[in-house]
Each structure stands twice: as structure tokens, then as C-alpha cells.
Design a protein that fits this description.
The chain has 2 domains: 166 residues, Rossmann fold (3-Layer(aba) Sandwich); 332 residues, no CATH class. The chain contains 15 helices and 19 strands. α6 runs antiparallel to α12, α6 packs across α14 and α8 packs across α10. The radius of gyration is 26 Å and the shape is elongated. It binds manganese (II) ion.
Length: 509
């Protein structure tokens, strides 16, 4: 479980001394009341810490530098109670390296028509103060979110809450290590990309760990720990008939899980990838064999549920993105998973795509209690009896996303989807979801393919596209959103415009 309690958002009120010290004292007290009100609303996942009014260029710069250097601070919220001359913000904004939310609100809700005088005006001038601030942010091309609304309204608080979660996940990604056990699946383009640029843009670092090193952890796994984990499986899941606690396949699956978790913990990694052709010693009949006897799919499923990012077949971009989705949805209903476009179901207006993987789907999206089953899997180097959790996902709306490397930029592709009830798959014992992409199967899948999207994506029931908009803004990457209003004509135009925008953007830097 990620802990948001340790995190802070810093609130800075823009002011100035033009109206005298008394005005600033009043604004200071208004600001405290607003911050307390937001914190006590119960609608924000991360506490806001009031950092005072900033009345000069020096004060702005000082608070921005302090925010950069405070690891608890995951973002800054600014509010201009009045005209805060924006040249005062230039040096501070040049320094700021944390996400920024500009809240356009006002202490007072309604105009007190009968009593309003100049003193009132001087304390309630965000109507133009926030425009001055907005101008300098736009002039400086500062990435940010602008939230407009009364601070006591739950809609306004929800906008802040979404951004807060993304800011927390963004901070998490800046300290994220993804471990690749094995390389990319040979010849696959869409899941690969520029790892240097990924670290520059999205913060996370990708390292390789030889499977032989992982095997050192495997060798050290204690027998008692494996047995305890198998017991846990029996407590948590519905068990396939005939499968008992002495199963060698389950024993090896549990041992693999313990080995991978120990290795990830030792390295401080937040995510990993696997490759079904790289599981230790090649020949299981070799007397010196040290390796997984099966693809560690059950381990991947359970580690995903624990919050480890996961991408199959070396897909490190999906591993990092999954960790981000999992992190930002902490405490929300729903669930998330890494998924793969598996097979199509043509059925008129209800045409849909079966989402699954040969093993690795996260049980957080399961509708029913997952079933622990063992079946033969004829893919990869082992071709062996393999443990896995089998379930179908809940019906409902969700959002899926992927990141692809377009050569001159990363592109985040987001699609609203509706999960529908799938029919039983008695001969396909894997976890799955069945969804209709918005606006419909033809345009949803067509736009995704035109955008160059992967067959892997990171899905969540808990989020809205707004989360990804905020993420793309923080990362400074392209976002294409396929939703109920998408048309192929409009989407293709947007892609062409973006092509020019990013070409020029790159040239200007
Ligand atoms: Mn795959």
C-alpha cells in the first residue's frame, strides 16, 4: 500500500504590499481558513500545507526552491487573492521543478451587494489576480493544471484530488527503478523504445538483471517460506479440484514469487518485466539445472496486486505505467491491471475485444474470487504445467492507456472502454476482461492502431481521462484521447497537428 500520509502539497498565496500590511494579514487568515477547509473536507487524499503569502520576487523564489528540495512536497498549489504582479513570479517559476496547480477561486463566494466597498475588493481580487498569474505561466510555457471553482465545492475539490494523486504518482516515478529479467521479446518494436529519453521525460530508470542473478535469490528461498505462501494461496483463492498443497507446480510457483520479490526488494525496484524465453538454465534435464520450472505468471499476478509495475515480454514502459496507475489509485474502489488485446469478437454494435494474457492479469480487477489453477502452457522455453489465477473482470466503465515511443517524443494513448460480461471460456483458463472501446469498436480500435498503440495497456476502473491529462502535462508528453466523441477524421487531424507541434517544439529547444 502506498502511503499518502507522508506526502504534502504546498499552498502559496500570491499577494503584495500595495494595500498595506493589514490586507496581507487578512489574506493570510483567509488562506489558512481555506487550507483548513480543504484539508477537513475529507475529499483530498494528500494534506495541504499552508506556506504563507508570497509578497515579493525573493519570497516566491525562496518557497519554490524549498519545494524542490523537500522530498515530502509533491506539488505546489498557487492562488492569487489579488493582483500579485506576475514579474514577481518569474524567477521562482524558473526554479520550480514540482507539479503546479493554479487554483482560480475566491475566499468569498458571493458578492455582498449591499455592503461591498473597496476594502472588500482588495481582499477578493483573484478575478484579475489569477489572470495576471496565468499570463506569466503561459508566457513562460509552464506546465500546470488550472482548476476553476469555489474552494468549498466538492467538484472543485475533486479536481484538486485527481491532480494530487497524479502528482504523488509523478513523485513516485521520479524514484522508480524497473528491473528487466531478460530482454525485450525479439523483434517486437512497439514495447521497446529509448530508455534514456524515458528517464529524462518520465523519471523512471530501467535496469537489466541477469536471470542468473535472480537465481541466486531463488536458491536462498527457505522451504518453510514456500510452504507458508502455498498455505496463503489456499486461504485466498478458490482452488482447482484435485490440486493440493503438496503440488510440486504450486511449490515452484510460490518459490519463484518469493525469489522475484526478494530480488526486487534488494534492488529497491518498483516494477519488473519478464521474458518467457529466459527462465534460468535452458535444459531442465541438466543435472546442474537452476531455473524456474514454469513461467512465473502467478508471481507476476500477485506482485502486480501488491503494486509492483509489470510488463510482459520485456515491456518496461508498461511496467512503469502500471506502477503509476496502481499508485495513483490507492484507496479508490475499482482496481487496475496490465492487459493485452487478445482476440476480437465481431458482434455488431457490441463488437468487443477480449483482454487477457497467457497468465499475467492482475486480480485487482476480478469480479469473483480468483481460482488458482494449474494447466499446461506450451509457450516459451519451458512448456510446462503452470500455475495461474483465473477470473473474469467486473462489468463497468474504465480507462486504458499506453505509452509508445514515436522517435521524437513519447505518446500517451488513452481510451475510454466499457467492460461487458464475457461468456465462460472453459478451454482458455486465463484471467480476462471483455471490453468495447469508445466510441465504438471500429473507431476505438482504428484510432488506437492509427496512433501506433501497443497490444499491451494499463487499465483501471478507478480513474478518468483527467488523470492522464494531468500526467501528460507533468511529463510534457503528447496525449491522444479516444473517447465517445472521437471521429477518425478529427483524430487524424489531431495527430497531424501534433506531428508539426512536436517537430517545432523539439527544434525550438
Ligand atoms: Mn504480451
Amino acid at each position: 500500500m502506498a502511503n499518502f500520509n507522508e506526502l504534502e502539497l504546498w499552498w502559496v498565496t500570491g499577494a503584495q504590499l500595495l494595500y498595506g500590511g493589514d490586507a496581507v494579514v487578512a489574506v493570510d487568515s483567509h488562506s489558512k481558513e481555506m487550507v483548513d477547509g480543504l484539508n477537513n473536507s475529507g475529499n483530498l487524499p494528500i494534506k495541504i500545507v499552508y506556506k504563507g503569502t508570497a509578497n515579493s520576487s525573493k519570497e516566491v523564489e525562496a518557497v519554490m526552491k524549498a519545494a524542490n528540495n523537500d522530498s515530502k512536497c509533491v506539488g505546489i498549489i498557487t492562488w492569487m487573492h489579488t493582483f500579485s504582479p506576475a514579474k514577481m513570479w518569474i524567477h521562482g517559476l524558473q526554479q520550480l521543478r514540482k507539479p503546479l496547480l493554479h487554483l482560480h477561486t475566491q475566499y468569498n463566494a458571493e458578492i455582498p451587494w449591499d455592503t461591498m466597498d473597496m476594502d472588500f475588493m482588495n481582499l477578493n481580487q483573484s478575478a484579475h489576480g489569477d489572470r495576471e498569474f496565468g499570463h506569466i505561466c503561459s508566457r513562460m510555457r509552464i506546465p500546470r493544471k488550472v482548476v476553476v471553482g469555489y474552494w468549498k465545492d466538492s467538484d472543485t475539490q475533486e479536481r484538486i484530488a485527481v491532480w494530487s494523486r497524479v502528482a504523488a504518482a509523478w513523485a513516485d516515478a521520479q524514484d522508480m527503478l524497473i528491473i528487466r529479467f531478460g530482454d525485450q521479446m525479439n523483434n517486437v518494436a512497439v514495447t521497446d523504445g529509448d530508455k534514456v529519453e524515458a528517464e529524462l521525460r518520465m523519471g523512471y530508470h530501467v535496469d537489466y538483471c541477469p536471470v542468473s542473478e535472480l537465481m541466486e535469490y531463488y536458491k536462498k528461498v527457505a522451504d518453510a517460506d514456500v510452504k507458508a505462501l502455498v498455505d496463503e494461496y489456499f486461504r485466498l483463492y478458490t482452488i482447482q479440484e484435485g490440486l493440493d498443497k503438496d503440488s510440486k507446480v504450486l511449490y515452484e510457483a510460490a518459490k519463484a514469487e518469493l525469489a522475484i520479490r526478494a530480488c526486487l526488494k534488494a534492488k529497491g525496484a518498483k516494477g519488473f518485466t519478464t521474458n518467457f524465453d529466459d527462465l534460468g538454465t535452458d535444459d531442465i534435464n541438466d543435472p546442474n539445472f537452476v531455473g524456474f520450472d514454469q513461467i512465473p505468471g502467478l508471481a507476476s499476478q500477485r506482485l502486480m496486486a501488491e503494486g509492483y509495475g509489470f510488463g510482459a515480454e520485456g515491456d518496461w514502459k508498461s511496467a512503469a505505467l502500471y506502477r503509476t496507475v496502481w499508485y495513483m489509485t490507492q484507496g479508490l474502489e475499482g482496481g487496475c491491471s496490465f492487459l493485452e488485446d487478445y482476440t476480437l469478437n465481431f458482434d455488431g454494435k457490441q463488437s468487443s475485444i477480449l483482454q487477457a494474457h497467457m497468465l499475467e492479469v492482475c486480480p485487482l480487477i476480478a469480479e469473483e474470487k480468483p481460482r488458482l489453477e494449474v494447466h499446461f502452457l506450451g509457450i516459451g522455453i519451458r512448456k510446462a504445467q503452470t500455475a495461474r489465477l483465473v477470473f473474469t473482470s467486473k462489468p463497468g466503465n474504465g480507462v486504458t492507456a499506453t505509452v509508445v515511443d514515436m522517435g521524437n517524443r513519447f505518446r500517451l494513448i488513452v481510451n475510454d472502454v466499457e467492460c461487458i460480461k464475457s461468456k465462460p471460456l472453459p478451454k482458455l483458463p486465463v484471467a480476462s476482461a471483455l471490453w468495447v472501446p469508445m466510441p465504438n469498436f471500429e473507431v476505438g480500435a482504428g484510432a488506437w492502431i492509427m496512433a501506433g498503440g501497443t497490444h499491451h495497456s494499463c487499465f483501471s476502473y478507478s480513474i478518468t481521462p483527467e488523470y492522464w491529462m494531468d500526467y501528460a502535462e507533468m511529463a510534457g508528453i503528447e496525449m491522444l484521447h479516444i473517447d465517445k466523441d472521437t471521429t477518425m477524421e478529427g483524430f487524424q487531424k489531431e495527430m497531424r497537428f501534433n506531428e508539426v507541434y512536436y517537430m517545432l517544439n523539439k527544434a525550438l529547444k
